[in-house]
């Protein structure tokens, strides 16, 4: 059994979660501060969550392909994204970002606004309020978003296979390895990868839930 799909999956999920952590929090904070256009911004950021993953992958292919403006610009620097490991990360980020954004925004909106108003009356800058008041009080929701984003990136399939392909040792994740095994009628291998994916997801979620419960108990 070749273990490269496991390695690619973990590398992709970790990299994607790192990116979505900052991007999701930034997007949630930015949208909550908008005076106009919140609905439009929210719809755009949430759209990848409701679209079929293959549609997301198709649009990524159009956006970053060699015929696109972005693709042609990158080719000037001899950079290609399609069917590379970077493409697996981009696909995972796009499909998992809405989960991080939605949970972070919900945590921000549930926070007692009087705390923020009190900090402003004391003359504390918005930057310090964000780091020392908003984030610490919204940490439970943010950590929940991290769990959801990581598990979503861990099992991503549709956008990945459209945009990054299924290249063994490069872009083949556990999800795409299962697909390839089924296509080859190797159900034993498909079952092994499926069990592996379930175990990793379950262990991560249980571990994070236990850690969050311990934090709440303090």
Describe this structure in words.
The protein is mostly helical. The chain has one domain (4-217): MetI-like fold. Helices cover 78% and strands 0% of the residues. The chain contains eleven helices and no strands. It has helices spanning 4-32, 38-50, 53-64, 69-75, 85-110, 113-121, 126-137, 139-154, 158-163, 174-183, 187-217. Helix 8 packs antiparallel against helix 11 (187-217). The chain is globular and about 65 Å long. The termini are far apart.
Summarize the helices and strands and which ones pair or pack.
Elements: H1 4-32, H2 38-50, H3 53-64, H4 69-75, H5 85-110, H6 113-121, H7 126-137, H8 139-154, H9 158-163, H10 174-183, H11 187-217
Helix pairs in contact: 1-5, 1-8, 1-10, 2-5, 5-8, 6-7, 8-11, 10-11
- Pairing-aware structural class of the strands and helices? mainly alpha
CATH topology: MetI-like fold
Q: Ranges with pLDDT <50 over ≥5 residues? A: none
In total, how many beta strands? 0
Question: What would you say the CATH architecture is?
Answer: Orthogonal Bundle
pLDDT average, as an integer? 89
Q: How many helix segments?
A: 11
* Proportion of helical residues: over 70%
Shape: globular
Instruction: Determine the CATH superfamily.
Output: MetI-like
The largest sheet, given as strand count, sense and whether it forms a barrel, is: none
Order of helices and strands: HHHHHHHHHHH
Alpha carbon gyration radius: 20 Å
């Amino acid at each position: 059994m070749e273990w490269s799909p496991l390695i690619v999956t973990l590398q992709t999920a970790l990299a994607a979660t790192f990116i979505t952590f900052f991007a999701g929090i930034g997007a949630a904070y930015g949208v909550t501060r908008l005076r106009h256009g919140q609905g439009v911004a929210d719809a755009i950021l949430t759209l990848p969550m409701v679209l079929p993953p293959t549609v997301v992958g198709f649009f990524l292919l159009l956006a970053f392909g060699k015929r696109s403006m972005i693709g042609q610009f990158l080719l000037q620097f001899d950079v290609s994204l399609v069917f590379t490991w970077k493409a697996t990360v981009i696909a995972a980020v796009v499909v998992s970002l809405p989960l991080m954004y939605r949970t972070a925004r919900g945590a921000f909106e549930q926070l007692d606004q009087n705390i923020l108003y009190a900090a402003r009356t004391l003359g504390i800058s918005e930057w310090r309020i964000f780091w020392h008041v908003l984030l610490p009080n919204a940490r439970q929701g943010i950590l929940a978003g991290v769990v959801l984003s990581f598990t979503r990136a861990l099992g991503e399939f549709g956008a990945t296979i459209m945009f990054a392909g299924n290249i063994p040792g490069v872009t083949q994740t556990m999800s795409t390895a299962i697909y390839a095994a089924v296509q080859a009628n190797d159900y034993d291998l498909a079952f092994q990868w499926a069990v592996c994916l379930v175990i990793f997801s379950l262990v991560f979620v249980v571990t994070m839930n236990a850690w969050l419960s311990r934090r709440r108990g303090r």
